[in-house]
Amino acid sequence: MNQLVLVLDFGGQYKELIARSVRSLSVYSEIRSGNITADEVKKLAPIGIILTGGPNSAYLEDSPKCDPKLFKLGIPILGICYGMQMMCHMLGGTVKSSEKGEYGTILAQLNAGTLFQGLNKDSKVLMSHSDFVSKLPKGFVNTATTQDCPNAACENTKSALYGLQFHPETSHSKDGKAILKNFLYKVCDAKGNYKLNDYLASQIKKTREIVGSQKVLLGLSGGVDSSVCAAILTKALPGQLTCIFVDHGFMRKSEGDEIEKTFKSRDLTFIRVNAQTRFLNKIKGVTDPERKRKLIGEEFVRVFEEESSKLGDIPFLAQGTIYPDVVESGGDMGAVIKSHHNVGGLPEDVKFSKIVEPLSGLFKDEVRALGKKLGLPKVLVERQPFPGPGLSLRVIGEVTKEKLDILREADAILCFELDKMKRRPDQYFAVLTDTKSVGVKGDYRTYDPVIALRAVITGDFMTADYAPLSHTILSQISTRITSEIPSVSRVVYDITAKPPSTIEWE
Q: ω into residue 238 within 30 of 0, thus cis?
């Protein structure tokens, strides 16, 4: 049986990333609500507990708090950001509002703390806070500082309580993985016995228990998530899966035909539904991105219902929902960043008895690794992330067929040029903005929409840096787009990291 580390959620957007980071170190993790009781924790018998960040101030009366008995269980606890502040506040320390908050990558001075063994004294960390611990509780000692944060980390080794004001789970914290590893292996005595195969086995067992001998309908987009979802369901439920590819008209250039060609040759029941006009009419005149997602999500389900009625009784709907979808759609204590069509966009009256989501506990890199284990071809498991609503979210504002055609051509040019690179960015795409710009083509003045290019480097898709593409490549792409697409005369490049932006524009 795998050892367990509990990640207790207090509304931080990185809670799934913390859990993923723990699993990447071969320790099984589960996310639970921050209001779980000490008695419930004792029954789960975790080897460690991590308290997540969150948007609240620990000193406010109505801010979320954990069960105070947790600190007396003798189980090692690591508080991150709000988790550290809450722990210190509850144990008698003082948390105050900062005159100057810290956001982004900050240089920290690490002292001789347990979590920092083997690390250099100076380390870059990701900070995101407007409050700070001004006075540590009794029994705690300071283990790290920054220019504007006197208590950037702390510990009480006697009680096995540790705190970090920064976020070690993100790639922006240089030594973050080593810090988490020290907590797991030096403090929690982890054995490192969790493997991805364990997740696969448990999901196959769980899926069989839920579905039994009944049929399942899967919306197959051809992306990584739905493809791996199809593979795991085929393994768990041979002969019970029907895959429907709904071509909503928001796919990239030639992608619909490529998806059909790929899956028609595989051992799957594959049905293609051409619904381009139907989806365009559904979002006609809609400019709000959340409204687009909701409408497209609902229409997807309606198409599934109609197709399933033709196939007989299919009570289960499967979806390739993964962890980032869930966290960005809001959680028990989290704020909604954006809804995903296969999470927040589902209508309440969906006509399926149950939703099956075998990938909802995995991050993108885990999904890719699982796909390889299941024998999927490289072309599928390495496909770039693509939102369910497709290019409708990359056309800013109202979506029309004409705008989609322009965007497809621009996106195809960008992808063609970047696909030639030896070290490509992790994700890249074009956006048709709702801004128009004056230009000159030939002897004529033009007033056309602006194309924005987006390319990012990321390991987890929860945080990302823009890709530092060379001016030569950007110039080549811009020249091709403005030359080959008559209605475009200006191209710009997005150089914003995530956070503060998201990877997608909508």
A: no
